[in-house]
Design brief:
This protein has eleven helices and 20 strands. By secondary structure, it is an alpha/beta fold. The chain has two domains: about 220 residues, Ribonuclease Z/Hydroxyacylglutathione hydrolase-like (Metallo-beta-lactamase, Chain A, 4-Layer Sandwich); about 100 residues, Oxidized Rhodanese, domain 1 (3-Layer(aba) Sandwich). It starts with a strand and ends in a 10-residue tail after the last helix. Fe (ii) ion binds next to loops. The site of fe (ii) ion has 6 residues, from loops.
């Protein structure tokens, strides 16, 4: 079975796609975005997947790829098309090549026109294809920079994408109106630029009169993407917290395991955000914990110590996750949530006090 997730970057309106094999847990990630690598990495780890490859559909002009960054974090290989001219990839892909993950694979189809190195990745059973900035939903990528050519794009779409099965679902690299997926049949019929009875000269006429503004990010994104997203010296991304062993959840919270806290109790102050009756109830509390119920936390941040990081705890780890959001908004930078709360703490038979039994 295929595991499939579609993620969105709101700044650049880019879609990133995670495909994985349910049995072997091997995965590929299409068009990752540099600023979203933490998010995507968290999802990959939560789902228990092994990322084999990041695959870019082309050298993007509107965002920096997360390929290099993901390689640093998860050890994935970088795959890009040989025609892209990118340096620093582990695998340069040519048309017809397959990238396997478990029992599945994607096949590379050359679909130049937006750039000369653009490719479409087609899932082995042809049920899904990832068209990058070639075919968009009821639109197409622009053809007015980066070796773009409307004539070339017309042939790419008609010969490489519209020849896929009618029911094949098409997933683009971008959408600016909130649409997420289309199909070959739909685009053949309704794409105003490339569908129906539109001919090559109609498309060229359409594309040469778009008068689009210069992309804001192009001068930064293209040079970085030609190196698969490796940053310049002095432009390294923010480091992960190093004051404790933490993992980032896909929900966006830095999580601490109970055993780590028990073994490094002096590393942080514990803020218990339950109600007073729970603090002295059947689950007890962690020695030295300061009780500040969640509903009072925002108003009482001034009472909290600043000399060490803060770890929040509640019954099951939900309210305390919200507490980390409140604390970060109040300016506390080193904050983590105790995973599983006092329930997990007790299950793991870690020391408690104040238990009212
Ligand atoms: Fe693009």
């Amino acid at each position: 079975m295929l595991i499939f997730r579609q993620m969105f970057d709101t700044t650049s309106s880019t879609y990133t796609y995670l495909l994985a094999d349910n049995r072997t847990r091997e995965a590929v990630l299409i068009d990752p975005v540099f600023e979203q690598v933490r998010r995507d990495g968290a999802l990959i780890e939560e789902l228990g997947l092994k990322l084999l490859y990041t695959l870019d559909t082309h050298v993007h002009a509107d965002h920096v790829t997360g390929a290099w960054m993901m390689k640093q974090r998860l050890g994935s290989c970088i795959g890009v098309s040989a025609a892209s001219g990118s340096a620093g990839a582990d695998r340069l892909l040519n048309p017809g090549e397959k990238v396997a993950f478990g029992d599945h694979h994607v096949e590379v189809r050359a679909t130049p026109g937006h750039t000369h190195g653009c490719v479409t990745y087609v899932l082995g059973d042809k049920s899904r294809a990832f068209t990058g900035d070639c075919l968009l939903i009821r639109g197409s990528g622009r053809t007015d920079f980066q070796q773009g050519s409307a004539r070339t794009m017309f042939h790419s779409v008609r010969e490489q994408i519209f020849t896929l099965p009618e029911e094949c679902l098409l997933f683009p690299a971008h959408d600016y109106r909130g649409l997420t997926v289309t199909s070959v049949a739909e685009e053949k019929r309704f794409n105003p630029r490339l569908g129906g009875t539109i001919c090559e000269n109609d498309f060229v006429g359409y594309m040469t009169n778009l008068n689009l503004p210069h992309p804001k990010q192009i001068d930064i994104a293209v040079p970085a993407n030609l190196k698969c997203g490796a940053p310049e010296e002095g432009h390294m991304p923010p480091k992960d917290p190093d004051w404790a062993q933490l993992t980032l959840s896909t929900a966006g919270t830095w999580e601490m395991q109970p055993t780590w806290l028990a073994e490094h109790r002096a590393a942080a102050h514990v803020i218990d955000v339950r109600e007073p009756a729970e603090f002295t109830g059947e689950l007890g509390h962690i020695k030295g914990a300061k009780l500040v119920p969640l509903g009072q936390l925002a108003a009482r941040v001034g009472e909290l110590p600043k000399d060490r990081p803060l770890v929040t705890v509640c019954r099951a780890g939900g309210r305390s996750a919200q507490a980390t959001v409140i604390l970060q908004k109040a300016g506390f930078e080193r904050v983590a949530n105790l995973t599983g709360g006092m329930l997990r703490w007790n299950q793991e038979k870690l020391p408690v006090e104040g238990r009212n039994t």
